[in-house]
Amino acid sequence: MLELQFPVGGGRRCLVLGGRGFIGSHLIAALLGRGFRVRCFERPHVKPIGESFLDNPNFELYEGDFTSETDVAEALSECDFCYHLVSTTLPKSSNSDPIFDVESNVVGTIRLLNHAKNHLQKIVFVSSGGTVYGPPVEVPIPETHPTNPVCSYGITKLMIEKYLGLFYDLYNLDYTVLRLANPFGEGQRTLASQGAVAVFLGKVLRGEPIEIWGDGSVVRDYIHVSDVVDALLLSIAPSNGGHVFNIGSGCGHSLNEVLATIEEVTQCRAARQYSEARVFDVPVNVLNISEAQYSLGWSPQVSFFAGIDRFARWLGENNEFLKS
Questions:
Q1: C-alpha–C-alpha distance, residues 287 and 128, integer Å
Q2: Catalytic residue selected from 62, 153, 175, 222
Q3: Residue 175 known to be catalytic
């Protein structure tokens, strides 16, 4: 098994935008565990996922509005690194209001970069390997694949990637972009409007019917959240050539296969209801992860089956997440 070499904090401060979300909560725990000081930026009154870090002397919570230049500037103060995990839209609904998508995500990020260029060492941005490429012309999909997204969400992710490149060229602001596959795992909301593994697992455990868009043959790349966090930690190091990396398992699973695995893990039967396919769902999306393996020294450590098994066991110990 690959032994990952993670950086240690040494008292340096990381700003985590969206730190009370699914991935952000796991990331903050990992950063604190490696000696970083962490400032979590989140909208007011967002309920934390998992454990609270308020008693940790290296943690501070900053509540604010990502679209507020003042709030973002104050949050960046005295920070060395920034993890940008914020998104105000979802792929399936972003096309209904692309103006809001651009104003809140792209313009908000440019304001962030205008302040970050003065003192930040590096910014790590979570992009979307599931939407930026659009319909694939080759599978698995490499970073050099054409980018033809079919939803505003994917377009704005690409726009942010381009602005990160521009600020690197103009101001030498270092950055890494991680194009994530479909993350899943402990702490993910089972009543959310996205995240097939979490939603399906929650419904199976609650004995509820599962609606599947299309015939269940749509294939996606799923990755356990612990592997995502590993990639995020490794990305804080100074860039060495490349800036954009796919982060996934490198393997595809259809929706029907996802349900079959959940049934095997839980020993519960899934009640499936099939409906008309959605126009923005590309038939296959599996990421080529060889560049991240080579350049970041990263590889996924948790198999699909093991990840679902861990998630199911965690839900069994945290029943309140079956209701949230």
A1: 11
A2: 153
A3: no
